[in-house]
Amino acid sequence: MSPSNLFAKFCLLALGFTLAPHPLTAAPATSAELIPVNTARSQMTLLVGTDQRLYQLAYGSAGNSPAIPAKTPGRDAEFYPQAGDGFLFEPALLAVHTDGNTSTDLRYVSHTVTALDSNVTLTRIELKDSYYPFHVALNLKTYRNEDVIEQWAEISHDEKGQVTLERFASSSPELPGGNYWLTQFHGDWAKEGQLAEEQLTFGTKVLDTKLGVRAHQYRTPVFLLSKNGPAREDAGEVYGGTLGWSGSYQFAFDVDPAGKLRALTGINPFNSAYHLARHQLFNTPKMFWSWSAAGKGQISRNFHRWARRYILRDTGQLRPVLLNNWETTGFNFNEPKLTALLATAHDLGAEVFLLDDGWFGDKYPRDNDRAGLGDWQVNPRKLPDGLGYLTQAAHQRDVRFGIWLEPEMVNPASELYHRHPDWVIGQLHREPQLQRNQLNLDLSRPAVRDYVWKVINDTLAPNPGITYVKWDCNRFVTQPGSFYLKPDEQSHLLIDYNWALYDIMGRFATNFPNVTAMLCSGGGGRVDYQALRYFHTFWPSDRTDPRDRVFIQWGYSHFFPACAIAAHVTRMNERPFKFTLDVAFSGALGFDLDFAKLSPDEKAEALAAVALYKNDLRPIVQQGDLYRLVSPYDGQRSALDFVSEDRSHAVLFTYQIASGPADTVKPQGLDPQRHYRIREVNLAVGTASRLPGQDTVVDGATLMRDGITPACTKEFDSAVIEFTAE
Ligand code: GLA
Fold this sequence. Notes:
The chain is of the alpha+beta class. The longest helix is centred in the last third of the chain and has 24 residues, at 600-623. It starts with a helix and ends with a strand.
């Protein structure tokens, strides 16, 4: 042993360490190896260095595949950096080993590349600590045509005892040199999906949530990173990222002193230390990335196509037009009132009638939001003939029947709470904090999981006529304690909760494949691509004023396809009816109004609108490609178009949000060679189109170059223009 080694050993012993430090011998040099992770247009290239560490050489254009460098890269280029053994910045992993060692030193063991089908390939890289039997498998799944890369980590160990995970990123790529502009999508109840963009500078910018459940209340787990300038729709290098996790998450954008950006994403490590037993597997949630050199519009189209193909349920089926009763009745309904509304669903041409909150609770009836959650028995005073009667009434009118559930929650004023006060999430010795008069049920407790599943099963199994569910979740966690978990497992609560939730959602989707499902969390409090695997649509916001919906739907459209974004026509703030219809057309159309109370003109417009949507617009909007044309953040109007995959049919929407001169809008995505008939549709009763070029035929190239000029000048003017190839 060299004198300096001896000295080091002496110092450690003097400090009370009994373990021998690692001998300072270098690992045998092996040859370096590239691991390319490719999609059609993008590539991420990893390198196994001669030191057996895993590095990242590139993420960006498929045209720039790097070669093996002459010299092993610096530690700052590690792909999944670990804390405690030489890495200087934000680590992806921090593990405390059974002997208290807070460092990890992962080295490459092996990797496999498996083609799952002609479009999807899984690259799995096994890493192991150089000393401890501690393993990390990094998984990279590529979706070739959609340019999406999915990443997650699987962590396990064979140490004698518990290893504590303090940090556990899903993904932590370094984005190549340049200045980056970060766009986040923040908000609050009734104000979801708002864009804010800023340039990243040195240090760590953290976007996170610590709310555990309804965790996206203030921020959806999505972001854009645009290189060398603010993100543009149709040009420039942009990375889009979204995490499939409904709980607390953290995005940390770390710009090191050399100006290099690392984007760490995953479960929020805050108050979430996870004690991992021997052989237990810790899975991180999935992180989804897409890269494009053609701006954020292409990033959106990549995610939309990918979500329609791989994530959302039944995207081959068009989303039904539904009529909801919430904004019409609130909690105040009975059987005759609902039956009358049901009849209007049929008159309107709606395909589903969705009965919202308020149908349950006996001893503690759900007549307002102060009671009843937890007691999922029909309220016999409101609905004396039960759900079967309503489903039949709907069936007789050729309308499907749907129901609202909020199975994860309980009101203290409920039989459930009186039976099981310890089933809630809360802290010992603290006054329970209510939100909307309710508490979260503790899904880490097996009996609660069984109960929540039973609520769903007992509602749906005996009532096969219920073929639609709106799954709501109206509060977040402010006292993250479990009366079930042991003291040293308390920090597991919010992680275990969300995996248990997915398990129940999965059972729901598997056992009731014919039930269409809407994900809701007081609006957009839970919108992510893990939860959405079990749903068809989500409810973006309780704010249904179409003026605000222009912004909210614009925001969500960056990552989520229109077929998933429920958009209802309501009378909130009594906006002009045509504008209200036109805004809802650009999502999965529904209604939440009393059709019988509309004026004769409005009734005629609603009927014509439903027919137009069902016969013409629905497949283009729900299955086509979106082009955002004019941002509502830039001026008085917003415009977007959807183009069918074969480019034979397109529809353009323009919404005037303030008065201003008529302006030309240039559609995108058309086939330049083909000729399209231009037709303004959905005209208000008694009006004719004032669109120059109405009912003429123009080639796609001219249309996209010269645009069209809808006669929209006043606040709430709007136009819907179809292009049909001839
Ligand atoms: C939440 C939902 C609403 C409605 C109410 C019912 O706020 O977002 O759409 O279902 O709950 O209480």
